[in-house]
Structure formats: structure tokens, C-alpha cells
Amino acid sequence: MSFDVAEHQMVGVIGPNGSGKTTVLNMISGALKPTEGRISLRGRNISDLPAQKIAREGVGRTFQLVRLLPGLTVLENVIAGAVYGYRRRWGREAEDFAHGVLDRVGMDAMSHAPISSLTYIDQ
Hints:
The protein is mainly α. It has 2 domains: 1-61, P-loop containing nucleotide triphosphate hydrolases (Rossmann fold, 3-Layer(aba) Sandwich); 74-117, no CATH class. It is 33% helix and 3% strand. It has helices spanning 21-29, 51-56, 74-84, 91-104, and strands at residues 40-41, 44-45. Strands 1-2 form a two-stranded antiparallel ribbon. A hairpin with a 2-residue loop joins strand 1 and strand 2. The radius of gyration is 16 Å and the shape is globular.
């Protein structure tokens, strides 16, 4: 398998059950190590780097199971990710970052809604 992802581009991986989607994402994020081939980031081989170093390079992934803080708003849940993410942001910087993320995915208008009011797919 070979593909390129441009900086700031979000990519989804789709395919039937058992086709290797999770395995590929686990290898890219460093959770698994490839037995053949290589994974490159900005022209540098990252195949042997631990997951935390790959995350610090800006490679992120999401998981199928949604784990949210049910008593908070949409914005507060995204801020929690900004505060505890690979590049920790605090205060106004975290809030501005969270609004930017929500705007990027078309959800900034929902920022003050309770997270529990969103459909599962929006969560």
C-alpha cells in the first residue's frame, strides 16, 4: 500500500471488515511496527519510532469508540482534547484552537450545545 497525505489534510480509510484498515492506522501511529516496507513522514523514515514520538510529530488518529465528557458542551469537550493533546494548549489558546477545529469540521455553530444533544455520528 502506498499513499501520500498533504500537510493539514484529513484522510479517512474505508474498506470491508478484515481488509487491514486498523492495522494500517496502527502502523502509521506507531502502535504496531511494520515487518516490511517503511512509513515516511516528511521524507524521514518513522517506522521504528515509538508512538509518542510519532504523535509529537503531529500524526494523530481517532478511534471508533467515542469517549466524551457528558456533562460538558461540545466546545468544552474539544478544549479537553486541546489541553491534553500532543501539544498542550491552555486558556484562550485552547479555546481558539477548539473553535478552529469545530469550524474545520462544520460544527462551530454547535459549540455551546450539550455534547449529549448531538447524534452519535456528530459526537
